[in-house]
Amino acid sequence: MDLRHLRYFVAVAEERHFGRAAERLHMAQPPLSQQIRQLEAELGVDLLHRTTRRVDLTAAGRAYLKRARAILAEVDDAARLARRVAAGAVGHLTIGCVGSATYSLLPALSRRLSLELPGVDFSFRGEMLAPDQVEALRTGAIDVALLRPPVADLSLTVRTLRRDRLVVAVPADHPLAKRSRLRAHDLADADLIMHSADRRSVMYSVVLRLLHDAGVEPHVRHEVGETSTLVTLVAGGLGVAVVPEPATALTLEGVVYLPLAGPTARVELALAHRADRSEPHLTRTVEVIETMV
């Protein structure tokens, strides 16, 4: 069935007049009348009673009008949905966040995405280490990752967003807490709390390299998987920890954060997604994140 015939019929049925319907449709009256005749011939029923002054619906026409309107409404809804999908305004995405971004960036990001892309259903997974995020991107468990490079997987597109300073989380009653800033060699005698080596944490490698370059042999007292647990143990007086500056959003009683001096005392935050993904809603989400960071 030609959808144009449905639109022509609905216009005539609603106007009850071929001339007014033709004007509404921006076409001449004779072609419109011919199109309605063709529709009736295809259906094998009369839809209209025609007089010189007006047009009335037959019983078949009244039934057909109800269904025609419903069909056209569905078609129009489908067209609107297609345009919204093409514009990146509809879809579902799961975003995975490294620990420090979970606290510092995720609250504002979730609000911003809800405002700018209200038709996209977002879910979030926080406290993810980079290796877990890379695997989740591969399997489709997450669609976008905010992680710490390096990322060696060539199937992923990785864009550096910023370079975060490193700070030292110190128990408030620790001797180092009296300092205004620290250098890596100041940690030579300190008990360290670090992200887990077993889970291939990027921060574990970053901190070890930083201490090694300063000639410090680390005294690792605890290894943990989550940044929140790491800072909680610092609050408990079990040691000090080197963390990205955004982790200072975790304001626990008993913890102070001190700047860590040195040109290498930084760590990158990057955005990653599968290179074969180019859906409009994913592209728009990436653009929103990049404007925020």
From TrEMBL:
PROSITE patterns: HTH_LYSR. Keywords: DNA-binding, Transcription, Transcription regulation. It comes from the Bacteria. The keyword Transcription applies. Pfam families: HTH_1, LysR_substrate. InterPro entries: LysR_HTH_N, LysR_subst-bd, WH-like_DNA-bd_sf, WH_DNA-bd_sf. Residues 1-58 form the HTH lysR-type domain. The keyword Transcription applies. Belongs to the LysR transcriptional regulatory family. This is LysR family transcriptional regulator.
